[in-house]
Design brief:
Nucleoside Triphosphate Pyrophosphohydrolase; 3-stranded antiparallel beta sheet; alpha/beta; 5-stranded mixed beta sheet; globular; 8 strands; 34% helix
């Protein structure tokens, strides 16, 4: 898969001092740009803050990344999906958590009708939800969120990384026309 970039803590939080010689543990994640039959994109959020992100999450050790993306889409947005294309890979180094996140992103398409998410107890407690938006709306949302990050209005450490990562995934897919090509793939 194509490497898009590497994000470091100083890229997200320039005022933080980076601790040298940090030992990071790897965390593989799979993210998805999910297209429904109306060519809208799924974003997930929760009631604790107003920030949205692409569906996806940690990949189990016994799982292939593609299998994990399909599982995450079923769990988080209640949709069975098919993978259409690769977007790319972004890794990031989260010094506070000592995590090296290796994030893979795919364009996927909803198969059949949208179902009900299978939220964990914790996800139910924080009010997790799905919002379907156009590509243009998704890009606008992430650009606004990035501006809030740049002005210091985001208090959630990992949210800053997630905003920058997901905006880069959307922009990379858009620039390479991958989303536009796939939007018409299964139109009925």
């Amino acid at each position: 898969m194509k490497k898009i970039t590497t994000i470091y803590e100083k890229d997200i939080y320039p005022e933080k001092k980076t601790v040298k010689n940090t030992e990071y543990s790897d965390r593989v994640t799979g993210k998805a740009i999910v297209l429904d039959n109306e060519n809208k994109i799924a974003l997930i959020g929760n009631k604790q803050n107003e920030f949205l992100q692409l569906p996806g999450g940690g990949i189990d050790l016994s799982e292939d990344v593609r299998e994990g993306v399909i599982r995450e889409c079923l769990e988080e947005i209640g949709c069975t999906v098919i993978i259409l294309d690769e977007v790319g890979c972004i890794d990031d180094y989260r010094s506070r958590d000592k995590k090296h996140c290796i994030n893979y992103c795919y364009i996927v398409k909803v198969l059949g009708i949208k179902g009900n998410p299978k939220y964990t107890k914790r996800e139910l407690e924080i009010g997790m939800y799905t919002k379907w938006v156009t590509l243009e709306e998704a890009l606008d949302i992430f650009k606004k969120q990035k501006k809030e990050l740049e002005t210091g209005r985001i208090a959630f450490y990992n949210t800053g990384f997630n905003i920058v990562r997901d905006l880069l995934f959307l922009e990379n897919a858009e620039v390479t026309n991958k989303i536009y090509e796939q939007r018409n793939f299964f139109v009925t």
